[in-house]
Amino acid sequence: MSALEIFVLLVVGLVSGAMNTFAGAGGALAIPVLAHMLGNPVLALATFRVGVVAQSAIGLDGFLFVDRKPVIPWATLMIVLGVGVAGGLLGAVLAAATDPTWYGWLVVLSLGAIVGLLARSWWQGRAIEGAVASAPPPAPAAWPQALQLGALMLASTYGGFMHVGISFMLLAVLQRGFALSTVNALGVRSAIMLVLNAVALIWMGVAGMVAWRHGAILAVGSTLGAILAVRLAVSQRERTLNTIVLAMASLALIAAIVGLVTASR
C-alpha cells in the first residue's frame, strides 16, 4: 500500500466518519474509493464496516448516554440490540450469497423510500413551527411494539446486507416508530450500528471478505471524524439536525441514481 493510498483512506475515513455519525451517507463516499483500491465492490462493502464499527463506538458514548443512563430504558435497549444482531446476521448471510449486480437497484429503492419518510417528517415539523398555538404541540405517538420491532428487523437486515443508506433508515424508524428526538435517535442508532456491523464484520471476516489493512486505516480517520461530528451535533437545534439529515439523504439518493445510470451504460 502506497503513502498516497494511506493518506486518501485517512481523509476519506475522516469525512465519511463525520457524515455517518452526524447523519449518514458516508458510505456513498468511502465505498467507491475502497472499490477502486480493492477492485471488488463486495470486498469494499465488507471492509467499510471496520470504519463504521469505530465511528459507532464514538457516537455511542457521545449521543446515547446522559448522566451514564441511556436515553431509552435498558430493557428496551437490550431488545432493540437483540433485533439488530438478528437482522445484521441475516443480512450478512444474504450478502455473501447475493449477486452484487442487484446492489445498485436496492440502494436507489431504499434511499427513495427513506427520503420520502424524512421529507414528510421535515414538512410536518415545519408546519408545527409555523403555527401559532397557545399550547405546545402534542408529542408524536410511538408505534405499537410489534410494528416497531418489525420495522427495526427489516432495517437491520438491510444494514447487514449492504449498509448503504442504513443510517437514514434507522433514524426514520427510531424517530417515527419510537418517537425519539433526533439526538436521542442518533444515540440509539449508534448502538444498533455498532452491534449490527460488528456481527456482520465477524461473519464477513471469517468468509475472507475483509481487507483488514485498508479497514484499519479507514477506521483511524473514521474515529477522528466521529469525534468532531458528536461535538457539532449535540449543539444543534432539532430543526437544524433534521434539515441536515434530509439534505444528506437526498444527496445520497442522487449519487446512487447517477451511479446506477452510469453503470448501466
Summarize the structure.
The chain is mainly α and 265 residues long.
What distinguishing features does this structure have?
265 residues, mainly alpha, two-stranded antiparallel ribbon, 2 strands, globular
The outline comes out as globular
Low-pLDDT parts are 131-136
Question: How many helices in DSSP terms?
Answer: 10
Mean pLDDT: 81
**What is the terminal separation in angstroms?**
31 Å
Please estimate the helix content: over 70%
| Total beta strand runs | 2
| SSE string | HHHEEHHHHHHH
Query: What class do helices, strands and sheet pairing give?
Result: mainly alpha
Strand order of the largest sheet: 1-2
Biggest sheet record: 2 strands, antiparallel
Rounded to an integer, what's the Rg over CA atoms?
18 Å
What percent of residues are in strands? under 5%
Question: Any overview of this molecule?
Answer:
The chain has ten helices and two strands; from the N terminus they run H-H-H-E-E-H-H-H-H-H-H-H. With 265 residues, the protein is mainly α.
Task: Describe the secondary-structure layout.
Elements: H1 3-22, H2 26-38, H3 41-64, E1 65-66, E2 69-70, H4 74-96, H5 103-130, H6 145-161, H7 166-177, H8 182-206, H9 212-233, H10 238-264
Antiparallel strand pairs: 1-2
Helix pairs in contact: 1-2, 1-3, 1-9, 2-3, 3-8, 3-9, 4-6, 4-8, 5-7, 5-10, 6-7, 6-8, 7-8
